[in-house]
Design brief:
Shape of chain B: elongated
Number of domains of chain A: 1
Oligomer: heterodimer
Strand content of chain B: under 5%
Order of helices and strands of chain A: HHH
Structural class of chain B: mainly alpha
Largest sheet of chain B: none
Number of helices of chain A: 3
Structural class of chain A: mainly alpha
Order of helices and strands of chain B: HHHHH
CATH topology of chain B: Helix Hairpins
Number of strands of chain B: 0
CATH architecture of chain B: Orthogonal Bundle
Shape of chain A: flat
Number of domains of chain B: 1
Distance between the termini of chain B: 43 Å
Number of strands of chain A: 0
Distance between the termini of chain A: 61 Å
Number of helices of chain B: 5
Chain lengths: ~90, ~120
């Protein structure tokens, strides 16, 4: 049953990737692009988990965790750069 | 494509398939909202809620799949989903603050304008 739905599930996540790529390219504002990048990360993470189910291996969980970490750190760093003009502010 | 998938009992297989379909629907709707909606603060809703739930559903399906296959609880997915569910609101909040900053507003400026939300949005 899982094998039967897998093509549709994969298609849905790939469509999600395409839609967020469209927003990433089109913008128009900088936070839009950061948000699109974050969604791109999340869809890629879900696809990687799906690949783990298809190949029946736990190998990809570490990769998925690293993607989740990088997504958060990247989003926070970019949003902070927009907000403050600097990522790590120098102390006085 | 189905050659690599482990044979699970029917109930587990059906539950994994259902979770995957629900997760894919949520992720697709979230991403569609990101592409389609008209304003940044509207677009923010899609990824922060629906797409996060999509990832959570895929992780739940994976947890069930490997849990039934190995006969032991698989904790990798719990770690990932807890992390994703804690960080999504934080990044959403930061992005909203960044957009307000770019628009030259602060949260205190966001007093409700007159009229109901439906009247302000107008047709379409």
């Amino acid at each position: 049953m899982t094998a039967a739905v897998l093509p549709f599930v994969t298609l849905a996540f790939v469509l999600g990737l395409l839609l967020s790529t469209y927003r990433l390219v089109r913008g128009p504002s900088i936070p839009d692009r950061i948000l699109a990048l974050d969604t791109l990360y999340m869809n890629a993470l879900a696809l990687l988990v799906l690949l783990g189910i298809v190949l029946d291996t736990k190998l990809y969980f570490e990769a998925a965790l690293v993607i989740a970490l990088l997504a958060f750190v990247g989003t926070v760093a970019l949003a902070r750069f927009v907000l403050r003009g600097d990522i790590i502010e120098p102390t006085q | 494509m189905s050659a690599g998938i482990a044979e699970l009992p029917l109930w587990a297989d059906a539950l994994v398939a259902t979770l995957l379909v629900v997760a894919a629907a949520f992720a697709l709707i979230g991403s569609f909202g990101l592409a389609k909606l008209s304003d940044f603060f509207r677009r923010l809703h899609g990824p922060t809620k629906a797409a996060t739930l999509g990832v959570g559903g895929a992780l739940l399906a994976s947890m069930l799949h490997f849990g039934v296959r190995d006969g032991a609880v698989s904790l990798h997915e719990v770690l990932i989903s807890v992390f994703v569910f804690f960080t999504a609101p934080v990044s959403g909040h930061l992005l909203a603050k960044a957009m307000l900053h770019l628009e030259g507003k602060s949260i205190d400026d966001l007093a409700a304008p007159p009229g109901t939300p439906a009247e302000r949005d107008g047709p379409g």
